[in-house]
Amino acid sequence: MPYSPYSALLTQETGAVTKDWGGKLPVALAFPNTYYVGMSSLALQILYRRFNAHPGVVCERVFWEKGAASSAGAGGRGRNPLLSLESGRRVDEFAVWAFTISYEMDYFNVVDMLRQAGVPPLACDRDESWPLLVAGGPGITMNPEPMAPFFDAIVVGEGEEVIDDLVALFQDQIDAPREELLVSLDRLPGVYVPALVPPVTEQGPHPRRIRRLWVRELEKYPPVSGLYTPETEFGGMHLMEIARGCGRGCRFCLAGYVYRPPREQPLDLLLQWAEAGLQHGNRLGLVSAAVSDHTQIDDLATALLEMGAVISVSSMRVDPISVPLVKAMRAGGAQTLTIAPEAGSRRLRDVISKTQTEAQLLQAVELAQALDYPQIKFYFMVGHPTETQADIDELVDFVGKARGLFKRRIAMNATPFVPKAHTPFQRMAMTDVKTLKQRQAFIQKQVGRWQVAVRADSPAWAEVQAVLSRGDRRLAQVLLETPELSVSAFWETMARLGLERDEFLGEQDRDRVLPWYVVESGVTDNFFDYEWRLAGRGQTGPHCPTDSAGCLTCGACDQDWAFRFSDGAPQRRPHPTAPVAASIPLFT
User: Fold this and answer.
1) In terms of domains, do 41 and 185 share one?
2) Which of 118, 254, 288, 422 is the most exposed place for a label (fewest CB within 10 A)?
3) Are residues 446 and 575 in the same domain?
4) Residue 249 falls within a domain, yes or no?
């Protein structure tokens, strides 16, 4: 086995899989960010375990290294060629290169890694002598178009179940002519082969759409840590995804739609996973779009505390807040209680369908004070649709009320809102940089009086993110030709290639067929339009249930259902797990 230059990292790890390559299909599992960031990704760990569960597969990890591509030399084989973690082999020696992409801004790193590896970046320039490039993950799945020219295939949605089919296909046809392999991939459900699917145009409905995959029996693929290292944000922590998806319907939130319908793991199974995880240490991280929405979160938190677990959570809601969970976190030594109001005024929270009230938010602040939390952290967005200065004034007023209740450190984020594909706000204009900067500066000045620390993400980079999140295939050339990672270089490259920024940042016409229409998310266009009308009236939307009592008819659960709408209003239909019953009006 070749020497790995990452042996120092490997010696600190628990759970890494090393296999002899003899007779096996080699798969490079790539995360387009640093090892420190990538090893915090539960998705990476799930995929690593799924691929290596096949005896005929050897799967090794690959991470991006800052500045490595520029020093790699011609063909990517200079001082810093791109190497796998486990065996130190060059990536171009692998048969398959599988990317999991979490964030649009990592698109730049994908191109960087391709160059460092000496692999032709565009799929049209690669034949079977090069690795087959496959991608998936929330950062690409709902609008794959800006990245489509780089990849041979893109998995749309949750990929756990398609791994077995992909492995079988690769083992049978990886040496076949590339055109034949692409045709076979195109036949798999949820697999998008850009070379065989024309891009969306504005002339009419797209001839082909790729249905988003989602896992019906989530417990079949344990979403828990299998790799442990101190060299990451969650060093030594056992992560468990306790639920997937969120039924709250926040209109800005991509995760709330890409992972529909909401599903949760049963309590007894979670306790089994926790018991196994505690063999590696006492730190447990509960992962979900909204951890506190699990229907048995109080029982889970109490049981984990009794087991001696130190609990951390990815996010929680305060409507209502889980007091046992907050107490269990503090008893385990948690230093920060994180709360996400997202908007400062009740009016704007109704527009974005974030239903928690100011009373509920302040109750959480009082609880943090009573439990002696050292810090509270607030997450806000600025630039929401319809936001005015009055909403920002109310945001400041809220922070002032929180300061009156909480006597220790308060920190907050003021992140620019970025419209995302396949959400009710997908057609909305991006708030301009000047306005975003003014509102961020106002917030910093006002709350600074109360010694509140503010982290204000860059509006200029948020604009770049917005272009990538709603772009089309022309963006691939921009990514290729941008000479350096800077905002100015990005816009200069766009202009040189004849692309107007307002085309991507401005409001999208209601009659325009959007580039991401190639993805059939399951949520119908009618539902998005209905949600936007509710937002315009300042009304919150309905929740997506986790049980079989009936659902919204948004379309996410059963994509073969002929969804019915009456005057633009959805009709209630049975949940897929419930007995069939007559539809009744959901809205009046």
Assistant:
1) yes
2) 118
3) no
4) no
Sheet holding 191-192, edge to edge: 57-63, 25-31, 96-100, 132-136, 153-155, 191-192
Q: How far is CA 474 from CA 199, 271, 273, 303, 322, in A?
A: 10, 48, 45, 52, 46
Choose one of 175, 197, 219: the last residue of a domain: 197
Do residues 163 and 26 both lie within one domain?
A: yes
Same-domain pairing of 537 and 428: no
For the chain, the domain total comes to 3
User: Are the C-beta atoms of residues 309 and 278 closer than 8 Å to each other?
Assistant: yes
Residues β-bridged to residue 192 = 154
Q: Is residue 97 part of a domain?
A: yes
Q: Which residues pair with 83 in a beta bridge?
A: 90
Residues 29 and 107 in one domain: yes
What's the CATH code of the domain at 404? Answer: 3.30.750.200
Torsion sign, CA atoms 74, 79, 85, 87: positive
Q: Measured in whole angstroms, how far is the alpha carbon of residue 55 from the centre of its chain?
A: 30
Q: How far apart are alpha carbons 195 and 183 in whole angstroms? A: 10
The neighbour count for residue 43, using CB atoms within 10 Å, is 20
Q: How far is CA 130 from the centre of its chain?
A: 29
pLDDT in tens, the chain (588 residues): 556 678 888 889 989 999 999 999 999 999 999 999 999 999 999 999 999 999 999 999 999 988 776 554 444 444 578 999 999 999 999 999 999 999 999 999 999 999 999 999 999 999 999 999 999 999 999 999 999 999 999 999 999 989 999 999 999 999 999 999 999 999 999 999 999 998 887 555 556 889 999 998 888 899 999 999 998 888 889 999 999 988 888 999 988 888 888 889 999 999 999 999 999 899 999 999 889 999 999 999 999 999 999 999 987 889 889 999 999 999 988 999 999 999 999 999 999 999 899 999 999 999 999 999 999 999 999 999 999 999 999 999 999 999 999 999 999 999 999 999 999 999 999 999 999 999 999 999 999 999 999 999 999 999 999 999 999 999 999 999 999 999 999 999 999 999 999 999 999 988 888 999 999 988 888 888 889 889 989 888 877 754 444 455 576 665 433 333 333 444 433 333 332 222 222 222
Full-model pTM: 0.90
- If asked whether residues 546 and 435 sit together in one domain, one would say no
Q: Note whether 351 and 417 are same-domain residues.
A: yes
Domain presence at residue 252: no
In a domain, 238, yes or no: no
Strand 263-264, strand 283-287: pairing: unpaired
Q: The domain containing residue 193 runs over which residues?
A: 7-197
DSSP readout, 193-226? -GGGSPPP-TTS--S--EEPB--S-GGGS--B--
